[in-house]
Write a structure and sequence with these properties.
The protein has helices at 31-34, 51-60, 81-88, 94-98, 127-139, 200-209, 225-231, 238-241, 269-275, 312-330, 358-373, 398-403, 450-463, 482-489, 496-499, 523-541, 561-566, 570-580; strands at residues 4-5, 65-66, 108-109, 113-114, 120-123, 144-147, 163-166, 173-179, 189-195, 213-215, 248-254, 260-264, 285-295, 300-309, 335-341, 346-354, 379-390, 409-411, 422-424, 434-444, 469-472, 500-510. By secondary structure, the protein is of the alpha+beta class. Helix 10 packs across helix 13 (450-463) and helix 13 packs antiparallel against helix 16. Strands 1, 3, 4, 14, 15, 16, 17, 20, 21 and 22 form a ten-stranded mixed beta sheet that branches. Strands 8, 9, 10, 11, 12 and 13 form a six-stranded antiparallel beta sheet that branches. The longest helix is centred in the middle third of the chain and has 19 residues, at 312-330. A hairpin with a 3-residue loop joins strand 3 (108-109) and strand 4 (113-114). It starts with a strand and ends in a 26-residue tail after the last helix. The chain is 28% helix and 21% strand. The protein binds flavin-adenine dinucleotide (FAD). Residues 9-10, 105-106, 146-153, 156-157, 167, 196, 218-220, 223-224, 226-228, 230-231, 233-234, 280-281, 285-286, 427, 430, 552-553, 588 line the site of flavin-adenine dinucleotide (FAD).
């Protein structure tokens, strides 16, 4: 099996405020209601819906009920290795996976979950389809699972023996010059309304390529809009524009009681707050989101290169120098994306910028380049430094980039596919990967002070001895404009996000553990790599007082998930969950309220 060290994110390139508004829902559910549901129904159980029940649901959703097929069936035995390998190719295409009811972007997570089709799927085409499905699942005590772009690392959109609510067909994108959230006072703002099943590439195409504006979404173009926003959500330019969730102006969703709600700062403000980072698949099924748009910055650009240090000591000094230059010249709204620190003492640079011109880009890197070029520092450019800027309107113009010979994007090459269906080449290695381990941690900006930089560099070197460590600067908001940081603090995302200069990520994985791929799965080796991820995470956690990490990019086996994902916000999120979903219809691994349930979400355990 080919071992891969994953540099998660897009390597190519990106509530409290609500207090004072009364919630209109009424009193919270009584404890008796809360404890009513103890066990969900599986196929074969006497309470499993009859064929007639399923026929009724099919009629209610206009025929949109299907039986998903197992995408990996041809690889589950070693009988026909050639056939499995041949079809593996299409499973490296994120759009192919996204177009299948049973498709998930990663194959699974070691000792956590593996992709498996639901028993039935509703490919909802309207809010009414969603309502009918939610009510059916509730009335029949089914395990309901919600899927949009299918990019959950934790398997949040995958559950065997479940009914899948798939938002794939809800993908209208409407750009507004002036949008007024219902019942909210103030001036209308420019915005975009997006069906919950849309992928970010479709939104960027409409907003930036065709309308010349900017919307804060994800870095990976094939991530689902709803899933990203519900988890908080970062893109390459988040240091300038903030969390995807902070841009949410309004959402339509169906809650566990089967009610359609339009929520915003004025309507159901608690629920609206929870949707902006409280996690996907937890508070209801979002059908539509409206997000603020911004004027496009003057330029968008990037800087790249790789520096080889002569040995570990030179690498530690290189990192310290880089972090000093980062704090002085790059920790500002202009710069995002990442560097990777490898076991071979290489610092790989894959940064992007917005709003600054070519001269400002060159100036930002001058001091660091001088450090690398000084012979006494024992570093060499393994890949020469390069940089450039472009018209930001062309950033997501996949067709234009392709015509210009760029290899930044890969394309959906299936016959008849829309030529705009593209993904950053740097995200390719994650498609259909089986994760062995994954960890993330917000690194506070205090660690960049003169006193702390040395210990930080030393810890990063130790953490990078067996696996690459990525520093994702756009996923920590220290250095962002004050308003952007304040907007992040007004969401349920852990407050550490606003104080962090970067999110450190360590992850590893390989090909799916399937006999049809022709090589036995080496479980001990995979577990050893998972241990290496945990060891790296421990090195970095030792640096910070209160560890915190990003819910959407985290360890499946994390013990303190409530504290690390949401910290002080957890009690409020839990209260909102109990109020809007007292029976726990919406369950996801490590989601708010999931502590009440068995790991598979079938048994209520408290
Ligand atoms: C290759 C890759 C690249 C990534 N890049 C980035 C990145 O650049 N920036 C970043 O911040 N994150 C990134 N992520 C993480 C990603 O943002 C989250 O996994 C996100 O939740 C995925 O949303 P989705 O709709 O694609 O996935 P899904 O798996 O479909 O959904 C994720 C979760 O949200 C729930 N959900 C989905 N739709 C709805 C809905 N309509 N209503 C209610 N719940 C819903 C699901 O039940 C599930 O629990 C990346 C992930 C992958 C695999």
């Amino acid at each position: 099996m080919q071992r891969r060290a994953l540099l998660i994110g897009t390597a190519a390139a990106i509530a409290g405020a609500l207090a004072g508004h009364a919630d209109a829902l009424g009193p919270p559910a009584s404890p008796a209601t809360k404890r009513r549901l103890l066990r969900r129904v599986r196929p074969g159980d006497p309470d499993w819906p009859s064929d007639a029940d399923w026929r009724r649901l099919r009629a209610d959703v206009g025929g949109a009920l299907t039986v998903p097929t197992d995408l990996w069936a041809d690889c589950r035995s070693a009988a026909d290795v050639d056939r499995c390998r041949r079809s593996f190719g299409e499973r490296r295409n994120p759009y192919f996976l996204g177009d299948q009811a049973a498709g998930t972007q990663v194959y699974g997570y070691l000792d956590g979950w593996q992709t498996a089709p639901s028993v039935y799927a509703v490919a909802a085409r309207s809010t009414a389809d969603v309502t009918a499905t939610v009510r059916f699942a509730r009335d029949h005590r089914l395990r309901l699972v919600v899927k949009g772009g299918g990019h959950s690392y934790l398997g949040g959109s995958n559950a065997p023996d479940s009914l899948l609510l798939w938002t794939h067909a809800l993908r209208d994108v409407v750009v507004h010059d002036a949008f007024q959230p219902a019942g909210v006072r103030g001036n209308p703002v420019a915005a975009v309304s997006v069906g919950a099943g849309a992928l970010w590439m479709e939104v960027y195409d409409a907003v930036t390529t065709r309308h010349g504006r900017y919307v804060q979404g994800g870095g990976c173009t094939t991530v689902g809009v709803a899933g990203l926003v519900l988890g908080g959500g970062f893109g390459s330019f988040s240091k300038g524009f903030g969390l995807g969730a902070a841009g949410l102006l309004e959402a339509e969703l169906v809650t566990a009681d089967g009610t359609v709600r339009v929520v915003n700062e004025a309507r159901d403000p608690d629920l609206f707050w929870a949707l902006r980072g409280g996690g996907g698949g937890t508070f209801g099924v979002v059908t539509r989101l409206t997000l603020a748009t911004h004027p496009l910055p003057g330029h968008a650009g990037s800087a790249w290169g790789a520096v080889q240090a002569a040995d570990e000591a030179a690498f530690a000094r290189l990192l310290e120098a880089f972090l000093r230059c980062y704090a002085a010249s790059l920790m500002n709204p202009a710069w995002g994306e990442q560097v990777k620190l490898t076991p071979g003492n290489v610092l790989e640079i894959s940064m992007v910028c917005q709003g600054i011109d070519e001269d400002a880009v060159a100036e930002a890197w001058r001091e660091f380049r001088a450090y690398v070029d000084a012979p006494a520092n024992r570093c060499t450019w393994q890949e020469p430094f390069g940089s450039g800027v472009r018209d930001p309107r062309t950033w997501w113009d996949a067709v234009g980039r392709k015509a210009a010979g760029s290899t930044s994007f890969r394309f959906d090459d299936r016959p008849g596919a829309d030529p705009r269906r593209a993904w950053w080449s740097g995200d390719s290695e994650q498609v259909s990967a089986f994760l062995y381990g994954y960890d993330s941690l917000w690194l506070p900006a205090d660690l960049l002070s003169d006193a702390e930089r040395g210990p930080l560099a030393a810890a990063l070197v130790r953490a990078s001895r067996r696996l690459p460590v990525g520093l994702h600067f756009n996923k920590g908001l220290a250095g962002a404009p004050d308003a952007v940081r304040a907007a992040a603090r007004a969401t349920p995302v852990h407050p550490a996000c606003a104080e962090a200069f970067a999110l450190a990520i360590v992850a590893t994985g390989g090909a799916p553990p399937l006999p049809g791929l022709g090589r036995p799965f080496d479980a001990p080796a995979a577990r050893a790599e998972a241990r290496a991820v945990r060891e790296a995470g421990r090195e970095l956690r030792a640096l910070v007082g209160t560890p915190a990490c990003y819910v959407s990019e985290s360890d499946y086996h994390l013990a303190d998930w409530r504290e690390e994902f949401w910290g002080p916000h957890y009690p409020r999120l839990r209260a909102i969950k109990d109020r809007f979903d007292p029976d726990g219809l919406f369950y996801v691994h490590h989601g708010v309220g999931s502590e009440d349930w068995s790991d598979d979400g079938f048994e209520r355990v408290t």
